[in-house]
Amino acid sequence: MSSADETRNTSAKRDLDEQALFYHRHPKPGKLGVHATKPLGNQRDLALAYSPGVAAPCLAIADDPSVAADYTSRSNLVAVVSNGSAVLGLGNIGPLASKPVMEGKAVLFKKFADIDVFDIEIDATSIDRMVDVVSALEPTFGGINLEDIKAPECFEVEEQLRAKMGIPVFHDDQHGTAIIVSAAVRNALLLAGKRIEDVRIVTSGAGAAALACLNLLVSLGAKVENIICTDKEGVVYEGREKGMDRWMAVYAKNTEARTLADVIAGADIFLGLSAGGVLKPELLESMAEKPLIMALANPTPEIMPDLARAVRKDAMICTGRSDFPNQVNNVLCFPYIFRGALDCSATSINEEMKIAAVDAIAALAREEVSEVAAKAYGSETPVFGPEYLIPSPFDPRLILKIAPAVARAAETTGVALRPIADWDAYLDRLNRFVYRSGLVMKPIFAFARNSEKRVIFSDGEDERVLRAAQVLLEDKVCRPILIGRPSVIETRLQRFGLRIRPHQDFEVVNPEDDPRYRDYVDHYFSKVGRRGVNPDTARALVRTNTTVIGAVSVSRGDADILICGLAGRFSRQIRDIRQIIGVAPGVGRLSGLSLLISQNATTFFADTYVQDSPTAENLAEIAQLSARMIEHFRIKPRAALLSHSNFGTADTADARKLRAALALVREQMPDLEIDGEMHGDTALSRELRQRVMPNSTLTEDANLLLFPTLDAANITMNVVKTMTDALHVGPILLGTAKPAHILTPSVTSRGVVNMAAIAVAEALQRDEEAKG
Ligand SMILES: NC(=O)C1=CN([C@@H]2O[C@H](COP(=O)(O)OP(=O)(O)OC[C@H]3O[C@@H](n4cnc5c(N)ncnc54)[C@H](OP(=O)(O)O)[C@@H]3O)[C@@H](O)[C@H]2O)C=CC1
Ligand SMILES: CC(=O)C(=O)O
Ligand SMILES: [Mg+2]
Q1: Deepest of 3, 23, 309, 404, by most Cβ within 10 A of its Cβ?
Q2: Is the ipTM of this complex over 0.95?
């Protein structure tokens, strides 16, 4: 039985096949759709979108073709083009059968780099026909990604298209693969202590991917004389006639060797871009020390990693698959290299842009991994080394590093028609795409930067807090203090590959052994002694309850800010904070504010976590505390009191409560833009407000939504969050005597960082207000 048959017959494979078929079929066939980006809701929209209005952009483009980038989606639209002649390692299965792969590439472009794609499967086998069809598509697209077209035709097709077209033409199987292979090779050689000029490379495969990888490795310093190619016919030797072409002839050698087995001895790198199972384990024995084995055929590699590892313990092993470490796959490159090229309207993707991408990817693997990347790898956090030569495809930093590097190289080499004019704004845009919290959080981070505020974290042993602490220290946002056992913190930092160290970089409060223990117990007892807590319980809690320890620390002035809530019940922690830190002078009750950041809006919701049925007075206070907090974000608050009643259409108790709250706010904080009571859609649509309340004092759509009850606020916030795939920042606890915030157990490390920065900004603002 062949290895392909073996693979096909495993039950795991059958399961995966069934799931894949279901995934592709339900709920709608395929993986892609087209959606309109402009409203088409009425006669006027129709007149603008189509005839007669559409004539205006048509004529503008006829006058000046470059404005097509302003009036159409072309500049963000890429064609993924295939004729289906070398689909993955499945061979020549034709254009129609290649469509799931091309739709898949389209999804990856969108997901990883926000690039729109039409997949174009063409029924064309001759070079001339492929070139004719693709070059005729230039008016439609900002770039062409050729995919799964077999060698040697793909070389000729790409060469001719590059010469004919004024937009980037990039054969992903060649150059995307070459870029990521080169990054992995660079890092592997660094670990092995070898120089690229000296290493011997043997390939299995002399097709599109293998030859492009070799060409790029040669531009990076590898020597042609140190490279031997093999393919189905065996060694590529001088004088060979069968299956030769001018591209592989570059690597032909004057040798009597004829098979892979004849040439692999002493090789430092095996580069497999051919077919599953072709590398037999025993062949690895004769390879050089610390060999790099790149078995990249998809879906079945040239050798499975466990078989390779059994023979060579010292090997570094890469495959194209996501279920093993070191996934060398062009998905790490193509979305981002196109992002960079499109963003500066590059006319091509040249050698310098490719090398910029190699440098960026290789350098990224040597940095500490992000939390998202760690998750993509499973439970073990990867640290740069033989099992982590290149970043995970889910590493959010890929776009931030590769796209700007590519755009800069395009500019330097003169192929950028519209060089990036404002690099800060460009990086912000990429950041916003990645984290979505980037822009709205920016003023907060700017304000908090270089603060000396001491933020104490109750859940100091939690991975998310450890990762957040490193970011906060690097970004100089605060001085973290972690509550936890030092040995546990130390071990986890090492396990997660984090650089910061306890005591040296940040303070640790050990609940099991802190010299201030007695003082903390006395302080705690002074706060809760007459609230049903006896001295024994106080002693036990100050040893075991880290929220209590953190709150006492802030109350005593040993820290400035408390962040807790990654574990434990919200209701208990708010009780501890209320009792120990207390409520700010002049504030009646604590309340909770949530921020949702979606693709289209930044909106605050209150009270989402604390007061279940606020009175009119409570609501007026929530509105004012929320508005002051929103100002820290350098956003002008615009509040709407939301109800089932729209400006007096109903006279229920809740509607009356909201009207009373409105009157109170207008009296107590006349500068705050607020109106109500109103429907949720009225708050978010100027058109509706003009229809039902033309003299509404809300001059723009509301960004602070206030609700009559906790249920209404919390339910709405969670529904909107889920339906719009929004990022939740918060809850931000309002009204405490000193900054203290209770996060939710589902918070990410980025959420911890965001909340710490908000709390630092809040603390600095309080200092300024105290100074007067
Ligand atoms: N991990 C990644 O990112 C990528 C992986 N790949 C994988 O690389 C492989 C090749 O793709 P690509 O270069 O586009 O395809 P091509 O058709 O252009 O090249 C295939 C090459 O592999 C050789 N080959 C095929 N079967 C064998 C075999 N049994 N023994 C030795 N050599 C063999 C072919 O030799 P001959 O010409 O004699 O038939 C040819 O040289 C595929 O499995 C693909 O999935 C490709 C791109 C990216
Ligand atoms: C990854 C890819 O492009 C291939 O295997 O063809
Ligand atoms: Mg491919």
Answers
A1: 404
A2: yes
